[in-house]
Automatic annotation (TrEMBL):
It comes from Saonia flava. Pfam families: YbbR. This is YbbR-like protein. InterPro entries: c-di-AMP_regulator (IPR053154), YbbR (IPR012505).
């Protein structure tokens, strides 16, 4: 019983002693880390605020070595987490052949990003040099790659509307000079029976490694209307008829199939059309037929087609 008691007391003393040693070590460590030290450190560089007219290509160095004065906690933090410094490239200079940032310029940038408790004693004397591509901006038209099929008895009024119809691209002259237009991505719209508007992405050709599209999508829209059909008889006019000659066509009127909205069809008359045959083409048509040419149709209709392609004729002197 007495032996057990002595063993327990001895074990407790050991624990108290170890705790005392641990606390003493921590106090010593904190005391030492609180003191000021001078040591070397290295900063990784990250480049920000690149001018819009330049494309970053390469740099002479990605880190800088510095001599610092700081407390031990600061150096311990540097050891655990390597410090990154943002280098503002809006301050880049050019001597006509090279882009660069002098040491005194990036030194000020580093000092601003360090804690007030850290003193920058010394820094690499190297000027940092950069390679950039000169960037240019060019306006190019957008070309639709949209496939459209319309529902029965429906038509597309006018052309497709693309907004914006042109976009700006930015890149090296050697690349953007090869681009004359930009296509939208392929999309198929089937059986349309109403107006539509869809956002469509733009396709960037392969090989444009350093060219940027300042607009990535466009909107394509169109007006879809239901149409009706109407047949209207139009008289045939003769052109290039020599003086003293006459010509009789068979028939002398031809039916024209018109497609348009109902309101437009109601307003149609034969005088809105000009359907001709050309006397000068007789020599090229020895079989007594002449081709019909529909040379005038009203803007209000979608399409108009003569139901006959040619007519027979006879000549007569007057």
């Amino acid at each position: 019983m007495i032996k057990r008691l002595k063993y327990g007391l001895s074990k407790r003393k050991v624990k108290i002693f170890l705790l005392f040693v641990l606390c003493s070590s921590l106090a010593w460590l904190i005391s030492n880390l609180s003191e000021s030290y001078t040591s070397n450190s290295s900063f990784d560089l990250e480049f920000v605020n690149i001018p819009d007219t330049l494309l970053f290509s390469n740099v002479s160095k990605n880190n800088v070595d510095a001599k610092l004065q700081a407390n031990g906690f600061q150096f311990l933090n540097f050891g655990l987490n390597r410090k990154k410094i943002n280098l503002d490239l809006s301050t880049v200079q050019n001597n006509g052949t090279k882009y660069f940032i002098p040491q005194q310029v990036y030194k000020r940038q580093i000092e601003k990003q360090l804690s007030s408790s850290i003193d920058l004693l010394d820094l690499d004397n190297d000027t940092i040099f950069f390679d950039f591509f000169k960037l240019y901006i060019k306006e190019i038209p957008v070309v639709s790659n949209l496939g459209i099929t319309l529902a029965q008895n429906h038509l597309l009024e006018g052309e497709l509307l693309i907004k914006p119809s042109t976009i700006s691209i930015r890149g090296p002259k050697s690349e953007i000079d090869t681009i004359m237009s930009v296509k939208t991505s392929s999309k198929v719209l089937s059986d349309l029976n109403s107006d539509f508007s869809y956002p469509v992405t733009l396709v960037k050709p392969e090989g444009l490694l350093n060219t940027e599209y300042l607009t990535g999508t466009v909107k394509i829209s169109g007006i879809v209307s239901k149409f009706s059909e109407k047949i209207i008889d139009v008289p045939i006019s003769i052109v290039n008829l020599p003086e003293g000659m006459g010509i009789q066509t068979f028939p002398n009127t031809v039916s024209i199939l018109c497609k348009a909205k109902l309101d437009a069809l109601k307003e149609l008359s034969a005088s809105d059309f000009l359907l001709t045959v050309d006397y000068a083409m007789i020599e090229n048509n020895p079989n007594n037929t002449l081709p019909l040419q529909l040379v005038k149709i009203p803007n209000s209709i979608y399409s108009a087609h003569p139901l006959e392609a040619e007519v027979e004729y006879i000549l007569k002197k007057e």
